[in-house]
Amino acid sequence: VSLLLYAGPDGEKAWPKKYPFCGGVFQSPIDFHKDILQYDSNLLPLEFIGYNVPSTDQFTLTNNGHSVKMYLSPTMYIRNLPFEYTASQLHLHWGNKNKSEGSEHTVSGKHFAAELHIVHYNSEKYPDVTAAMDKADGLAVLAILLEIGPFNPSYEKIFRHFRNVKYKDQMVQVPGFNIRELLPDRLDEYYRYEGSLTTPPCYPSVLWTVFRHPVKISQEQLLALETAMYCTESDDPEPLEMVDNFRNVQEFHERLVFISFRE
Ligand SMILES: NS(=O)(=O)c1c(F)c(F)c(S(=O)(=O)CCO)c(N[C@H]2CCCc3ccccc32)c1F
Ligand SMILES: [Zn+2]
Q1: C-alpha distances in angstroms, 146 versus 17, 174, 226?
Q2: Is residue 187 within 6 Å of ligand 1 at its C-beta?
């Protein structure tokens, strides 16, 4: 993928040329608004197994040129989805220091400051994420909306390493911690719909769970996220800031988003 995944001539409008699924069906992200929401009493709270990773273990955090992603341990998985889904990686989407509206999903047309995604793959049916990522029931991604509030010590366990992954392909080890701390309190309240990867190749392979309640991080933590990373390598004479790495919301016609809560 070209460096400028989100901006310039190779921006998201150009994705379908090289990645046909990006112009296809079931594309994510979307806007959650009243007339497409339907309450579903069968939507149970998700159960997280093995999310409390000991500090003796380590996660690899890396800058891949268009997001900052952290590989998770294969001992982490989710129950209460149609299949068992094993954790693969988490990454973030954000805006820029002048416009902190970088979430991918929106609620009644409103962006949140940023968004955390925890990518899982269907480990009951597929051996790994690469085999799963282009299958209709292959992936399950949890989305946590981030907004400004008090300093968040749990997010800081990742954010304090940003200075070591400023440039593309840099990586650093992060001591294990309870990934459950990154999620909101109410795991029983979420939006659920079938969608896609929000970056090329945009496979329609994702069962999305977007938690209703945002998580708060401080203004300083958000600024660090918006200013720490570059899309370019450390020796590149023309550094490109890694900002605005969110896809715009996609058309969502004749489909419903199921909600586990009553408005
Ligand atoms: N928003 S999103 O749709 O959740 C989403 C991203 F936005 C995102 F940037 C990434 S990426 O950082 O891997 C860069 C893209 O290759 C992923 N990765 C997925 C899909 C691509 C291949 C792959 C392989 C192993 C594990 C995860 C993934 C992604 F799923
Ligand atoms: Zn994502």
Answers
A1: 32, 21, 13
A2: no
Per-residue pLDDT of the chain (263 residues; tens, 9 = 90+): 456 788 877 789 999 999 999 999 999 999 999 999 999 999 999 999 999 999 999 999 999 999 999 999 999 999 989 999 999 999 999 999 999 999 999 999 999 999 999 999 999 999 999 999 999 999 999 999 999 999 999 999 999 999 999 999 999 999 999 999 999 999 999 999 999 999 999 999 999 999 999 999 999 999 999 999 999 999 999 999 999 999 999 999 889 999 999 97
Q: How far is the CA of 252 from the centre of ligand 2 (A)?
A: 18
Q: Counting atoms of ligand 1 from 1, which one is nearest the CA of 206? A: 3
Which atom number of ligand 1 is nearest to the Cα of residue 66?
9
- Cβ–ligand 1 contact at 247 (below 6 Å): no
190 in helix, strand or coil? strand
pTM across the whole model: 0.97
Residue nearest to atom 6 of ligand 1 (CA): 199
Cα 119 to ligand 2 centre (Å): 8
Q: CA of 177: how far to CAs of 1, 116, 117, 234, in Å?
A: 32, 16, 17, 29
Question: Is residue 244 within 8 Å of residue 231, measured between CB atoms?
Answer: no
